Amino acid sequence: MAFSVEGRRVTVAGAARSGIAAARLLAARGAQVTLSDVRGDVPEARPLTELGVALEMGGHEAQTFASADLVVLSPGVPSEQPAIAAAR
User: Fold this and answer.
1) What is the pTM (predicted TM-score) of this model?
2) pLDDT at 86
3) Of 1, 37, 43, 51, which has the fewest Cβ atoms less than 10 A away?
């Protein structure tokens, strides 16, 4: 059984190495990706905009997570955060 993310809205929480890699992979597979991070600026994430990835820096917005078809949490992101809980 194949799992497709093409055309799906996917929010990736955490813009460290694994989050950036996940966002890159999901964008390459046709997802509409938003990469969210609590830090105000993540220079390593900027090149992802060329792949169509939206960057949400400076905090996790509940609406971004609640409107996603799929949420991917990076290992360092606590699942108890209010914005992430809103996606449940």
Assistant:
1) 0.94
2) 81
3) 1
